[in-house]
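Ticket #4471: structure export looks truncated?
Reporter: QA, pipeline team
Priority: medium

Steps to reproduce: submit the single chain below to the structure queue and open the exported record.
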Amino acid sequence: MFIIKSNYYLYIENTLSINLNVLKKNKKIIIIYRNNGAQEDFKKLDVFRRKCKTKNFKFYIANNSILAKKCKADGLYISSYNKKIYSKYNPSLIGSAHNFKEIYEKIKQGCSTVVLSRLFKTFYNDKKGYLGLVKFNLIRKNYLIDLIPLGGINDDNLLKLNLVKSKGLCLLSEIKKKPAISNRLF
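Actual output as written to the record:
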């Protein structure tokens, strides 16, 4: 069975962490480059963006509007800890949040889409608590923007995503651990 959503958001930390050849040409895939460590070479990033464009993937860069403009990215991703207002950068803004306060901040920043973290239970030592399907759907009813679920999505609970009232879903670690999951999604 497949998960049918309008958009699939994939986080990557470097251009080598995902093989674009495995993914089919699809306008629904949005790749978010969020490198918190050493910055990648601009030429490699530009080549990666071009590959995304040939596959019809949208490409977003996290927290760096200068790099996003220079690289001609499709938009900017704003992390939950980032409190800057990006009114000058208009193409498309995606935000990240963990609670109501952060959702409100992302709306003030001009984000049309917010990735809401921890839908399912995760097994990270420092991350406790999660929303669950019912709570996520109740939160979703309160906002006019698109809320996208992230966190704890794996093979075991993949089909539960059909019950989530969201236009998309976001994957971080599962796509790296099991690239075959992409066949079930897209």
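Status: closed, not a bug. The export was complete when the record was re-opened. Leaving a note from the reviewer for reference: The beta strands are 7-12, 29-33, 58-62, 75-78, 93-97, 113-117, 146-150, 168-171.
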